[in-house]
Design a protein that fits this description.
2 domains, Rhomboid_protease_S54, Rhomboid-like fold, two-stranded antiparallel ribbon
Length: 292
């Protein structure tokens, strides 16, 4: 059988050189055979152009200032956090002070038991969860009212600017840092609770964001100054939690919004990891002091 000679004038597929074709990609105009044709609005496109268009579409998706995904409901995480705090507050009202004793922040204290076999409680006794659970506890209506008002006002703008995942990281790291500084500096038998550390973290992050966007910083700085005055003037407030949350919130936010676009995610993860590591090291040192 005589092999059919290729017809003159027909191009060969750019991927399959043994196949002749008269069709070209409408984007790059390279010749393509039926196996490489992808139907388009007009004519056919090659597989490479289709993949490139899909990648460009993903890259072109709008992102927040910190690189997070833009969502339709930018305040969803804020509402969830608010609902969690209110739910725990209602649980405290229903169960009484025992829930506060079980979940509140205490360093190392004796809770009942006999003289010969005391019942120790606290972070130093291995109850590390108190560092986080205490940040969702409130006993007084004015306490949760002020904290939730701050969350409601500061949360949605930050969530919109950072994205949901980064906002959650900011909130939780601020809460943990506030609890940690209380654990390190306050009396080990002092019981403390409240979301104030996380809220002050949002204050610090808002100040950093305002600086990044070159907004007028006087309103946020005035509001922060007022809250700091109240922190140190009002007896009974755990100022350590406020300061710890404020510092952590500012550091985390700076890493999120000032990271260069080319290495944004590794730098953001690194900053969050450094804050978490500082919290862990401080807790370990304080625990060794209390148990030593």
């Amino acid at each position: 059988m005589t092999q059919q000679q290729p017809q003159p004038g027909l191009a060969r597929c750019y991927q399959h050189q043994d196949r002749e074709t008269g069709v070209r990609c409408t984007r790059c105009e390279r010749p393509i055979c039926p196996a490489c044709m992808v139907p388009a609005a007009v004519g056919y496109q090659c597989v490479g152009c289709v993949r490139g268009a899909a990648g460009a579409a993903r890259a072109a998706r709008p992102r927040t200032l910190a690189g997070g995904r833009i969502s339709a409901n930018a305040g969803l995480v804020t509402k969830v956090l608010l609902a969690m705090n209110v739910a725990v507050f209602l649980a405290v009202l229903a169960r009484g002070d025992q829930l506060v004793v079980d979940l509140g922040l205490v360093g190392y204290a004796v809770d009942g038991g006999s003289v010969f076999a005391p019942n120790w409680i606290g972070v130093a006794d291995g109850e590390w969860y108190r560092l986080l659970t205490s940040a969702f506890l409130h006993q007084e209506i004015w306490h949760i009212g002020f904290n939730m008002l701050g969350l409601w006002l500061l949360g949605p703008p930050l969530e919109s600017a950072l994205g949901r995942a980064r906002f959650v990281a900011l909130y939780l790291l601020s809460a943990l840092a506030g609890s940690t500084l209380s654990y390190v500096l306050a009396d080990q038998t002092q019981l403390s609770l409240g979301a104030s550390g996380a809220i002050f973290g949002l204050f610090g992050a808002t100040a950093v964001l305002a600086r990044r966007l070159r907004y007028d910083m006087r309103p946020i700085m005035l509001l922060l100054a007022i809250n700091l005055v109240i922190t140190f003037a009002w007896s009974g407030i755990a100022w350590q939690a406020h300061i710890g949350g404020l510092i952590a919130g500012a550091v985390v936010a700076a890493g999120l919004v000032w990271a260069p676009r080319e290495r944004r995610l590794p730098i953001q993860l690194g900053v969050c990891a450094l804050v978490a590591a500082a919290v862990l090291v401080a807790c370990l040192i304080r625990t060794s002091q209390l148990l030593g």
